[in-house]
Structure to design on (1366 residues):
């Protein structure tokens, strides 16, 4: 049974692409066309189309705190809204692809562009019935992934491996850009209904959110994505009465799945629009409103987790506010008629400024507890250089650089002499996926564990030379010294040479299990993440009121990352994520045909922001250390994308007084809203 | 300066082989021809040609025990001889070759056919000035090596890496068979002068040996090979007066180096010829003579090492003697005149039987002490299968099979579910070379170390379930049981699944340092090897006295291997080694031109025995366990080759009464000796 346009129905393996295309074109599939449903709201009540269970709902998560009705009763002002976000394509550099090489009768090595080699290993092992030790997966250079190469490569590799198994030849399977956009997962389109109440003096009293994620024809990662939607829906605020209901609904569209932010950009758009609107209703500066409500150290989140450390939320707001000149720039939004009037007077370009304050649960949630472990391997070379291996992947986020720094620091060797081995499932045990901004933090912890063992081995070897007990030694810069008196310096490079000369053990494995997490979905409360990153975005835009075109001028992006082990890669993450967030908020939208097929199937019809569209992005690094992270670092790689969209729409409102209930804020959509508002306000 | 014909003088890197050949042919080298020396005896005294130092002697090793002159004075009979052996080519399946792939500005990955990836890693690092962590060497499937891919690939890879470094492109460098035979190392030709004395009742009193190895234009592994020549020269006998002087001498031939047996086949040919001759002089059955003199448990070797365990020498002789029917077959050699007479009577094919008894120092000698360590990595997979990695290589000897068996046995998992990862220098630390029959024993020990750690982790996880202390648990077959009462069985496969489910550490490194060894070359005594393998070869031949052609009919090869972990691969080693030993003793000879170039440069002019030349080979496995080896196993992979040549020449003598002082025993050489003997015996 075929559930969506683009679903694979057969594979053809041939000696050349041309042969394969010819053979594939000879396949005739006769379809009996059945009725289909594309809208998740329709799907939830559909009398006859059942894609998943009775109601097409494949997952439900909730937050419940206090009494939300009483909260609204206590409120002096209430705002309500319904928000929609669209499917976003990952637009990684190279499309999905892999090469499967069979060896012997039950061994297969797969090379490919991917985030999660251990997922691929499990999939290939299961599909072919090979032992896990017979399947080796090696990640090749991956030009971005953004969630699009989380679970999808398991399918790609599974098909290639099946072909290789049957033909006993290496099989290469590479999607064209069109095939990739048409058939692989994208960001879930969402419908979010939100109701927010606050007192006259600007304190939130209640938040109610209903979330519907359209997860397409197969649930895939829908339930996991929905979890994060549900947990981030009420934002980083102190609210005592909360009710969030989240549902993932199957439809006859291409499956939707993981994408940087993982279900949170959709809900944060709604959340931060609501905050802006309620502040306006109270005639308050929206940043001042946030200052009154944002979480501080010792507060409890809307889902019941006390955050008593590493809470840089307010600091990000303070820094972004200062750097952006918010106080002098912000003034209440104009009336649209005046805008048009002004435009007629000669200036059709109006400026506005908008903000958003968001948070991010670092690492895998409690629903991914089983995957929350990481391995590492570290080997000291005879010339004092170091080789290491981890199970998480470098996908452009800079993990390799940061982990190399960690190893260098832990062992006291030069960064330039530390090298990461290719990611290969036979080098370290299953270390879970490279998702949820977990690589630096958790592979970092595993590396620290391995390095600690090597330090002990090193100290044992040199202790007699220094004349101290091994337990008294420590690494200080590039030297081993006695921690009692800082005496007896031996260069680490010499110590490593001694270890080799004396034939000591020079390798170690590291292992880390993330701190425990839990979430009780029945009561809607728990401790779903180990810690949180925090962020304030402030965006300045210029809107052309005659065309609806918006030009993003400046983005101030303040992020509490715990500790920036490499400030340059942190800034790179902020810049890249902000631009991808602009894609989500301002540019990108997958367009579907009436039969549910993807129309915008390449990069000339699916428009992403280019360097020419890039605004000035000002990264602001806030460091509120998380004790359990390496040097205090918290993962944050997804966060830069997450809060951009509402900052943009809030800035558009601030510029021209027009609210958007849907992103991306394309010129067409903005223009339509301007026209609507004009009609509404004209007599 | 060019020292030998075939020495590389330039490298050409091009986009195709054809381009490279054209470019190379455009290079004109103008040589000033200098005088050359090819004979090592001439080279030692040469007044003007100095290839190495003043006397061209690049290495000297000795054995000294007792008073050899007094030993000869005590002797009733003395025999003396001068023996010569020729250069032997390894004739591995694929010629030398590798691919060097540059990554970044100081990273290089080398793939190639080789024995010793860590040697290649060091060479490439040194040549390019890259950190050791920047150089990764991965062994590709290697179709035999036999010592020919011990040090040579360092040069091959060094040149390829240099090309890759300069061009910033991957460079493939593959020798043709002709280039390979002409330019790479071979077995050292040797000249051995031996003098042996014995009492009238058949006890050895003194052995004096002078060895000259021709090591060619560069010493390379000459000194290491010479060490083994020196230590094996007096054979596995009880002799109290010994003097062995060994010299490696440089000449203007292609460099000679490592080859299965590593300098011992040359000296064992001489040793076992001497034993046969002295037995004859005493009118004794040569096997009976050996029985009187061979080392037994508790005896001391000629170099002063007491062997008080794992001495299966006599057992190999007993078993080979029985299986071959020696007692009924052996009779004193005929007089050559009678032979010819017999031939004229109709039978020109005469049969004879010969024996040799030899020993082999297992693993690296004390001169390789620094290299005597091995690493391992073992990873338990979620389905109970196991992946492991070691630093020694599979080169056709069956190491992968045997090590997989060790891992399976140590952990209690199915052999079929254990897989070895490709050998890659970034997976385990420098584990020394794959030489000296050390892989099974020493990588086996490192794997045992890693498996022991994993067993502890496993026992800790399941102890609460069994209701015993972890320290009381053990593996029994495929189960974990309490060692007290053999109760509480939990399948190992379940235990591994539990480890994964509970996110326990599932990988470990292993490390092994070989037991200590030493040798004092000043006094010529020591403990040069950790233990010894022992072997008796008995060979039956048929000699055509009209042509000098010999046909090897049967080979009985009894080897004390400590423990045959895999009897089939042990038999395979015995069969392959015996045939290669026949190559050395009967067929193979590199022919040099007058200017020192190799004339027999391909497999139609350099003749090796094929399957059609293979005699019946009867492997006989003797197991005298070495406590420190895995399950008692001792390395022995080289031994099957080592004693074949003298067994063949002794059998030829037994058939036709003609002694050979030189191998291979080609028809031409045998015929020449027959003619000489005839001339000598005719009036």
């Amino acid at each position: 049974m075929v559930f969506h346009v683009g679903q694979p129905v057969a594979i053809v393996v041939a000696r050349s692409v041309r042969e394969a295309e010819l053979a594939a074109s000879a396949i005739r599939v006769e379809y009996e066309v059945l009725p289909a449903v594309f809208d998740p709201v329709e799907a939830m009540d559909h009398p006859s189309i059942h894609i998943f269970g009775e109601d097409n709902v494949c997952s439900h998560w909730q937050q419940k705190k206090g009494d939300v009705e009483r909260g609204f009763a206590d409120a002096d002002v209430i705002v309500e809204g319904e928000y929609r976000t669209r499917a976003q394509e990952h637009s990684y550099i190279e499309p999905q692809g892999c090469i499967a090489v069979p060896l012997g009768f039950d061994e297969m090595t797969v090379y490919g562009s991917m985030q999660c080699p251990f997922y691929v290993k499990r999939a290939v092992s299961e599909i072919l019935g090979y032992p896990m030790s017979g399947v080796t997966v090696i990640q090749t250079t991956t030009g971005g992934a953004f969630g699009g190469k989380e679970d999808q490569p398991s399918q790609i590799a599974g098909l290639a491996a099946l072909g290789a198994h049957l033909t006993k030849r290496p099989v290469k399977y590479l999607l064209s850009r069109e095939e990739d956009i048409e058939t692989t997962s994208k960001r879930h389109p969402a419908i979010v209904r939100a109701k927010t109440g606050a007192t006259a003096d600007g304190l939130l009293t209640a938040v109610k959110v209903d979330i519907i994620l359209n997860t397409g024809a197969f649930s895939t990662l829908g339930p996991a994505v929905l979890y994060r939607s549900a947990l981030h829906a009420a934002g980083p605020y102190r609210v005592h009465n909360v009710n969030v209901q989240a549902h993932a609904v199957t439809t006859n569209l291409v499956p939707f799945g993981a994408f940087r932010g993982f279900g949170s950009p959709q809900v944060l758009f709604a959340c931060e629009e609501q905050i802006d609107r309620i502040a306006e209703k109270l005639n308050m500066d929206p940043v001042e409103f946030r200052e009154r409500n944002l979480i501080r150290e010792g507060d409890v989140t809307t889902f019941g987790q006390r955050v008593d450390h590493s809470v840089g939320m307010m600091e990000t707001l303070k820094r972004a506010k200062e750097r952006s000149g918010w106080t002098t720039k912000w003034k209440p939004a104009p009336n649209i008629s005046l805008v048009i009037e002004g435009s007629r007077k000669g200036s059709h370009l109006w400026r506005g400024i908008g903000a958003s304050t968001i948070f991010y649960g670092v690492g895998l949630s409690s629903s991914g507890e089983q995957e929350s472990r990481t391995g590492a391997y570290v080997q000291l070379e005879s010339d004092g250089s170091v080789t290491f291996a981890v199970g998480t992947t470098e996908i452009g986020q800079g993990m390799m650089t940061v982990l190399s720094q960690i190893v260098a620091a832990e062992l006291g060797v030069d960064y330039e002499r530390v090298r990461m081995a290719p990611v290969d499932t036979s080098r370290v045990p299953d270390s879970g996926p490279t998702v949820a901004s977990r690589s630096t933090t958790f592979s970092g912890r595993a590396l620290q564990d391995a390095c600690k063992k090597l330090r002990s081995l090193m100290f044992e070897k040199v202790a007699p030379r220094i004349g101290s007990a091994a337990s008294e030694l420590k690494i200080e810069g590039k030297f081993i010294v006695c921690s009692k008196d800082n005496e007896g310096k031996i260069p680490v490079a010499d110590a490593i040479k001694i270890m080799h000369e004396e034939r000591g053990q020079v390798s170690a494995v590291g292992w880390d299990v993330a701190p425990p997490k839990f979430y009780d979905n029945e009561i809607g409360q728990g401790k779903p993440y180990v810690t949180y990153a925090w962020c304030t975005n402030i965006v300045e835009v210029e809107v052309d009121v005659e065309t609806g075109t918006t030009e993003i001028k400046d983005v101030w992006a303040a992020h509490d990352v715990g500790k920036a082990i490499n400030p340059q890669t942190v800034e790179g993450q902020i810049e890249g994520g902000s631009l991808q967030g602009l894609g989500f908020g301002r540019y990108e939208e997958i367009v579907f045909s009436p039969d549910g097929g993807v129309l915008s199937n390449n990069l000339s019809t699916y428009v992403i922001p280019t360097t020419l569209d890039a605004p000035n992005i000002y990264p602001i690094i806030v460091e509120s250390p998380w004790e359990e992270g390496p040097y205090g670092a918290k993962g944050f790689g997804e966060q830069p994308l997450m809060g951009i969209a509402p900052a943009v729409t809030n800035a558009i409102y601030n510029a021209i007084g027009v609210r958007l209930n849907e992103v991306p804020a394309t010129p067409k959509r903005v223009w339509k809203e301007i026209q609507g508002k004009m009609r509404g306000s004209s007599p």
